[in-house]
Design brief:
7 helices, 183 residues, 5 strands
Length: 183
Protein backbone atom coordinates (compact mmCIF):
# COMPACT_ATOMS: atom_id res chain seq x y z
CA UNK A 1 0.00 0.00 0.00
CA UNK A 2 1.28 3.46 -0.89
CA UNK A 3 0.45 5.97 1.86
CA UNK A 4 -1.37 9.07 0.59
CA UNK A 5 -1.46 7.61 -2.93
CA UNK A 6 -3.89 10.18 -4.37
CA UNK A 7 -1.99 13.10 -2.84
CA UNK A 8 1.33 11.73 -4.09
CA UNK A 9 -0.03 11.23 -7.58
CA UNK A 10 -1.60 14.69 -7.77
CA UNK A 11 1.53 16.36 -6.44
CA UNK A 12 3.77 14.39 -8.82
CA UNK A 13 1.65 15.52 -11.78
CA UNK A 14 1.79 19.11 -10.50
CA UNK A 15 5.57 18.85 -10.02
CA UNK A 16 6.13 17.61 -13.56
CA UNK A 17 3.73 20.16 -15.11
CA UNK A 18 5.27 23.09 -13.22
CA UNK A 19 8.93 22.14 -13.68
CA UNK A 20 8.55 21.09 -17.32
CA UNK A 21 7.08 24.53 -18.06
CA UNK A 22 9.86 26.27 -16.11
CA UNK A 23 12.61 24.40 -17.99
CA UNK A 24 11.13 24.45 -21.49
CA UNK A 25 8.82 27.46 -21.53
CA UNK A 26 6.11 25.08 -22.80
CA UNK A 27 3.17 23.42 -21.10
CA UNK A 28 3.54 19.71 -20.36
CA UNK A 29 2.24 17.49 -23.20
CA UNK A 30 0.28 14.45 -22.05
CA UNK A 31 2.80 12.02 -23.59
CA UNK A 32 5.62 13.55 -21.54
CA UNK A 33 3.53 13.29 -18.39
CA UNK A 34 2.76 9.61 -18.95
CA UNK A 35 6.45 8.88 -19.50
CA UNK A 36 7.60 10.91 -16.48
CA UNK A 37 5.16 8.95 -14.29
CA UNK A 38 6.17 5.60 -15.79
CA UNK A 39 9.88 6.36 -15.40
CA UNK A 40 9.28 7.36 -11.78
CA UNK A 41 7.37 4.14 -10.99
CA UNK A 42 9.57 1.70 -12.92
CA UNK A 43 12.87 3.31 -11.85
CA UNK A 44 11.64 3.21 -8.28
CA UNK A 45 10.90 -0.51 -8.61
CA UNK A 46 14.37 -1.10 -10.03
CA UNK A 47 16.08 0.94 -7.31
CA UNK A 48 13.93 0.29 -4.22
CA UNK A 49 11.61 -2.64 -5.01
CA UNK A 50 8.45 -0.55 -4.85
CA UNK A 51 6.71 1.85 -7.26
CA UNK A 52 6.61 5.47 -6.11
CA UNK A 53 3.05 6.11 -7.31
CA UNK A 54 1.65 2.67 -8.11
CA UNK A 55 -0.15 3.55 -11.32
CA UNK A 56 -1.35 0.71 -13.53
CA UNK A 57 0.09 1.13 -17.04
CA UNK A 58 -0.90 -0.23 -20.43
CA UNK A 59 1.73 -1.00 -23.05
CA UNK A 60 0.62 1.41 -25.75
CA UNK A 61 2.49 1.97 -29.01
CA UNK A 62 4.24 5.08 -27.68
CA UNK A 63 5.16 3.43 -24.39
CA UNK A 64 3.56 3.01 -20.95
CA UNK A 65 0.33 4.95 -20.38
CA UNK A 66 -1.74 5.06 -17.15
CA UNK A 67 -5.36 4.44 -18.27
CA UNK A 68 -6.70 6.04 -15.08
CA UNK A 69 -5.42 9.40 -16.39
CA UNK A 70 -5.72 8.80 -20.12
CA UNK A 71 -9.39 7.79 -19.93
CA UNK A 72 -10.34 10.82 -17.79
CA UNK A 73 -8.21 13.49 -19.47
CA UNK A 74 -11.17 15.29 -21.08
CA UNK A 75 -12.49 16.49 -17.72
CA UNK A 76 -9.49 16.06 -15.45
CA UNK A 77 -8.90 18.92 -13.04
CA UNK A 78 -7.78 19.05 -9.42
CA UNK A 79 -6.75 21.89 -7.16
CA UNK A 80 -3.16 21.30 -8.35
CA UNK A 81 -3.43 20.85 -12.12
CA UNK A 82 -5.73 20.79 -15.13
CA UNK A 83 -5.67 18.87 -18.42
CA UNK A 84 -6.45 21.18 -21.38
CA UNK A 85 -7.55 19.92 -24.78
CA UNK A 86 -5.70 21.76 -27.56
CA UNK A 87 -7.13 19.76 -30.43
CA UNK A 88 -8.37 16.24 -31.07
CA UNK A 89 -6.40 13.84 -28.85
CA UNK A 90 -3.79 16.51 -27.97
CA UNK A 91 -3.72 17.57 -24.33
CA UNK A 92 -1.43 19.65 -22.16
CA UNK A 93 -1.24 19.76 -18.39
CA UNK A 94 -1.06 23.07 -16.53
CA UNK A 95 0.00 23.37 -12.90
CA UNK A 96 -2.27 25.58 -10.81
CA UNK A 97 0.11 26.02 -7.85
CA UNK A 98 3.27 24.67 -6.27
CA UNK A 99 3.32 20.94 -5.43
CA UNK A 100 3.64 19.77 -1.83
CA UNK A 101 6.83 17.71 -1.80
CA UNK A 102 6.36 16.53 1.78
CA UNK A 103 4.52 13.48 0.38
CA UNK A 104 7.75 12.23 -1.21
CA UNK A 105 10.91 10.69 0.19
CA UNK A 106 14.32 12.09 -0.78
CA UNK A 107 14.82 9.37 -3.40
CA UNK A 108 11.52 10.23 -5.14
CA UNK A 109 12.25 13.97 -5.19
CA UNK A 110 15.73 13.41 -6.61
CA UNK A 111 14.34 11.03 -9.24
CA UNK A 112 11.64 13.52 -10.30
CA UNK A 113 14.27 16.27 -10.56
CA UNK A 114 16.57 13.96 -12.53
CA UNK A 115 13.77 13.16 -14.99
CA UNK A 116 13.01 16.85 -15.50
CA UNK A 117 16.70 17.59 -16.04
CA UNK A 118 16.99 14.72 -18.53
CA UNK A 119 13.87 15.31 -20.62
CA UNK A 120 12.58 18.87 -20.08
CA UNK A 121 14.50 20.51 -22.88
CA UNK A 122 12.94 22.89 -25.41
CA UNK A 123 13.68 20.62 -28.36
CA UNK A 124 13.04 17.16 -26.88
CA UNK A 125 10.15 15.61 -28.80
CA UNK A 126 7.42 13.24 -27.67
CA UNK A 127 8.92 10.67 -30.04
CA UNK A 128 12.29 10.90 -28.25
CA UNK A 129 10.87 10.45 -24.75
CA UNK A 130 8.64 7.63 -26.00
CA UNK A 131 11.61 5.88 -27.60
CA UNK A 132 13.58 6.27 -24.37
CA UNK A 133 10.73 4.62 -22.45
CA UNK A 134 10.87 1.70 -24.89
CA UNK A 135 14.58 1.27 -24.20
CA UNK A 136 14.62 1.82 -20.44
CA UNK A 137 11.38 0.25 -19.21
CA UNK A 138 11.95 -3.47 -19.66
CA UNK A 139 8.41 -4.40 -18.64
CA UNK A 140 6.98 -2.42 -21.60
CA UNK A 141 9.00 -4.53 -24.04
CA UNK A 142 7.80 -7.78 -22.42
CA UNK A 143 4.13 -6.82 -22.68
CA UNK A 144 1.78 -7.25 -25.63
CA UNK A 145 0.53 -3.88 -26.95
CA UNK A 146 -2.61 -2.53 -25.28
CA UNK A 147 -2.29 -4.96 -22.37
CA UNK A 148 -1.63 -4.11 -18.73
CA UNK A 149 2.06 -4.05 -17.81
CA UNK A 150 2.99 -6.30 -14.89
CA UNK A 151 5.52 -4.61 -12.61
CA UNK A 152 7.34 -7.91 -12.05
CA UNK A 153 8.33 -7.87 -15.73
CA UNK A 154 10.63 -4.97 -14.93
CA UNK A 155 13.08 -7.48 -13.46
CA UNK A 156 15.52 -9.33 -15.68
CA UNK A 157 14.55 -12.81 -14.47
CA UNK A 158 11.39 -14.43 -13.18
CA UNK A 159 11.74 -13.45 -9.54
CA UNK A 160 8.63 -15.40 -8.52
CA UNK A 161 10.50 -18.65 -9.21
CA UNK A 162 13.91 -17.54 -8.00
CA UNK A 163 15.31 -19.21 -4.87
CA UNK A 164 15.07 -16.94 -1.85
CA UNK A 165 18.81 -17.05 -1.20
CA UNK A 166 19.40 -15.77 -4.75
CA UNK A 167 17.08 -12.76 -4.43
CA UNK A 168 18.59 -9.31 -4.12
CA UNK A 169 17.35 -7.00 -1.33
CA UNK A 170 15.38 -5.00 -3.94
CA UNK A 171 13.76 -8.19 -5.30
CA UNK A 172 12.85 -9.28 -1.75
CA UNK A 173 11.30 -5.88 -1.09
CA UNK A 174 9.34 -6.08 -4.34
CA UNK A 175 7.98 -9.54 -3.44
CA UNK A 176 6.91 -8.16 -0.06
CA UNK A 177 5.23 -5.26 -1.84
CA UNK A 178 3.37 -7.75 -4.09
CA UNK A 179 2.28 -9.87 -1.12
CA UNK A 180 0.96 -6.85 0.82
CA UNK A 181 -0.82 -5.38 -2.20
CA UNK A 182 -2.34 -8.63 -3.43
CA UNK A 183 -0.83 -8.45 -6.90
Amino acid sequence: MIPYKKEKRDNAICFFALNHKRKTGKYLPQTFLYKYLAFLDFNSIKDTGEPALGYQYKAMGKGPVPPSLYNKRENLETELYVFKNLEEDKYIIKAKKEPNLSYFCDYEIKEMERLINQFAKPFTTTEEISEESHKKIAAWGKTQRNKVIDYKNNFRHDILNKKEENLSPVEKHFLTFLAVNGS
